[in-house]
């Protein structure tokens, strides 16, 4: 399943999971706008499609799962 806006993923930055705000394909690269779940700091990053496919979805914003992430 491709990463979509509103999902919370890990492995984008080492320090915390992030909420994806926008995904924009750029050929062999992907531009992501995201906000840190803990710090609430927004940022933008351009990564390869290989790195993009390696991101792990933890949950979606506003939902609960048993992986230990709650986002209200």
In short:
This protein has about 70 residues and is mainly β. About 15% of the residues are buried.
Describe the 3D structure.
The longest helix has 5 residues, at 49-53. It is built from one helix and five strands. The protein has one domain (7-60): SH3 type barrels (Roll). The protein is mainly beta and 72 residues long. It has one helix at 49-53; strands spanning 7-10, 18-26, 29-36, 42-48, 56-60.
Biggest beta-sheet profile? 5 strands, antiparallel
User: What would the CATH topology be?
Assistant: SH3 type barrels
Low-confidence spans: none
Query: Structural class, please?
Result: mainly beta
Helix content: under 10%
Q: Would you state the CATH class?
A: Mainly Beta
Strand content: over 45%
Strand order of the largest sheet: 4-3-2-1-5
Give helix and strand order, one letter per element, not per position: EEEEHE
SSE map:
Layout: E1 7-10, E2 18-26, E3 29-36, E4 42-48, H1 49-53, E5 56-60
Antiparallel strand pairs: 1-2, 1-5, 2-3, 3-4
Features:
single chain, SH3 type barrels, mainly beta, 72 residues, 7% helix, five-stranded antiparallel beta sheet, 5 strands
């Amino acid at each position: 399943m491709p990463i979509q806006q509103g999902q919370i993923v890990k492995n984008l930055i080492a320090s915390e999971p992030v909420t994806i705000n926008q995904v924009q394909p750029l050929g062999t690269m992907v531009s992501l706008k995201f906000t840190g779940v803990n710090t609430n700091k927004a940022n933008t990053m351009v990564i390869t499609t290989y790195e993009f496919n390696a991101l792990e979805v933890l949950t979606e914003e506003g939902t609960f799962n048993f992986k230990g992430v709650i986002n209200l």
